[in-house]
Amino acid sequence: MNRLIIILVFTTVGLLSQAFAQSTSHQITVDLKKIDSPWSTAWTHFGYDEPNYTYMKDGKKLLSELAALSPVPVYVRVHNLLTTGNGEAALKWGSTNAYTETKRGKPVYNWQLVDSIMDVFVERGMKPVVEIGFMPEALSRKPQPYRHTWQPGVDYNKIYTGWAYPPADYKKWGELVYQWVKHSMERYGKDEVCTWWWEVWNEPNIGYWQGTPEEFNMLYDYAVDGVKRAMPEAKVGGPSSTGPGWNKAADFLRNFLKHCEEGTNYATGKKGSPLDFISFHAKGSPKVMEGHVVMNMATQLNDVAKGFDIVSKSVFKQLPILITEFDPEGCAACGMATNPENAYRNGTMYSSYTAASFTRLYDLAKRYKIYLEGVTSWSFEFEGQPWFYGFRDLATNGVDKPVLNVFRMFGMMKGNRIEVENSHEIALDSILTKGVRKAVDIHALATAADASMALMVWNYHDADVPRAETEVVLNIKNIPAERVMLSHFRIDRDHSNAYEVWKSMGSPQNVNETQFKMLERAGQLELLKSPEWVITDKGHVYISVTLPAQAVSLIKLEYK
């Protein structure tokens, strides 16, 4: 085939010649020989407050979809695994009744509901990040009131009731954890449980812990002792604190690490406490400004940067880090009716924010030379709630939202991360300082394996306002094949977007069977056009992409 025919073929499939590409203002270059690092599957973590949704209809459906996202196991973390109650699910609430006591104070263990939750995960090949909490009513130092009745719009602090208090008896607490791990091994086998992560409590530096920092260290020591007595090989850690970017939160994390290094262990009397991984949380802070939502990625990434910095200066700098909640803001169950700043959640702003923020998170891990093991998106589903209410969820009433399709894109990426050259890239330090408030963030993430490469590219801005689409040329070099199969997946207003289809139906709350099937299909990841064979020019192609505002594309090239 001569040069003229090659150019004609390229033009037909949306590829450009060298001369045309050089005249384009926005170009992203990927050289497959420039390997950055092994591709991180840290994104394969999800979590939610309400554990009893796990075995409900839509919960099981979504967990099956999450399990299918990735070639490696997907991890799940849930709150309330030890909370007392009858298993009824409610917003920011759940229970298992795992621990009660007789009138004489003798412990009674009941693992039925805990097993119902863990069974769903294990049956799907998923791995629990087992959150050891919250405090059973019979153990709580201040048990009443115990169950909260919080609803969106109510003061968030109303949730912190008896379940958030320290135990009246730390030895009973440690024995409860021991019995739990022992039971888990008996039910699922030691080899399986060895693949789990055990995390003590949740956000003990704010209202989730109604004790002192030292009392939390005591809680941690007794919990870890219980885990390790049952299974010395178990991976256990913490402190699962939130907001390392705040001064007091930074101090909490530092002091916890110091206790694990050299403090007197409350359970054993020895020096220090076992720590197999370190966990903390990072959240953004969107606002409504001049009538539209404006995100704040800077706040979220600064939390991460501060946490990484603290760990990198400690004796534990080589340990895995789990960011066990990583989200654009702090309340998954606060919908847009009561919190209009959360209106970003239904559409493509959430998906483009996720693509942009996760990529910068990986960049921060590289900067601080951190072993980033997992990043939990605290987003699941809310059973029996209004359609597209604006919760921070991946699906609504069994229909997937656009953000879930970003994770489907991540699941197609494998091999090694490849360097991306982008003359218009917004520098990481600029995003840490200012967010994405001026220039639009047109950037990309690339991976390559033996017989394929994938390139995710997005058009993101913090402000949710109408913007013109952007023309981008992707310059891919050193493809080890003469021809490739090109597949182009897209999330935008018209693709992979059940929300827009639902609105076009008139935003019904009573969805009929025909409408549901349409919405279900619209929630899946969609090809922009049919896959096609493309001839490379000595291993080199240019791909022209038109990106609408808040759109995300995944270009996948497959070859032998």
Report the structural category.
alpha/beta
Care to count the β-strands? 24
CA-based gyration radius: 24 Å
Q: Report on the biggest sheet.
A: 10 strands, mixed
The CATH top-level class label of one domain? Alpha Beta
Mean pLDDT: 94
Residue ranges: pLDDT <50 for 5 or more in a row?
Answer: 1-24
CATH topology of one domain: TIM Barrel
The best one-word shape is globular
Please name the fourth-level CATH homologous superfamily of one domain.
Glycosidases
What is the share of helical residues? 25-40%
Amino- and carboxy-terminal Cα gap: 20 Å
How many individual helices? 14
The CATH architecture of one domain comes to Alpha-Beta Barrel
How much of the residues is beta strand, in percent? 15-25%
Protein name: Beta-xylosidase
Keywords: Glycosidase, Hydrolase, Signal
InterPro entries: GH, GH39_cat, Glyco_hydro_39, Glycosyl_Hydrolase_39
Pfam families: Glyco_hydro_39
Short description:
The chain is an alpha/beta fold and about 550 residues long.
Task: Explain how this protein is built.
With 560 residues, the chain is α/β, with parallel strands linked by helices. Among the domains are: 3-38 and 415-558, Sandwich (Immunoglobulin-like), CATH 2.60.40.1500; 79-275, TIM Barrel (Alpha-Beta Barrel). The chain has 14 helices and 24 strands. The chain has helices spanning 3-12, 18-22, 57-67, 112-123, 170-188, 190-193, 213-230, 247-262, 297-312, 348-367, 402-411, 428-434, 498-504, 513-522; strands spanning 27-38, 45-48, 75-78, 99-101, 107-109, 127-132, 197-200, 235-242, 277-283, 287-289, 292-294, 320-327, 371-377, 395-396, 399-400, 416-422, 441-448, 452-460, 470-477, 483-491, 526-527, 532-535, 541-547, 552-558. Strands 1, 16, 17, 18, 19, 20, 21, 22, 23 and 24 form a ten-stranded mixed beta sheet that branches. An eight-stranded parallel beta barrel has the order 2-3-6-7-8-9-12-13, surrounded by four helices. α8 (247-262) runs parallel beside α9 (297-312). It is globular, with a radius of gyration of 24 Å. The protein starts with a helix and ends with a strand. The model is unreliable at 1-24 (pLDDT under 50).
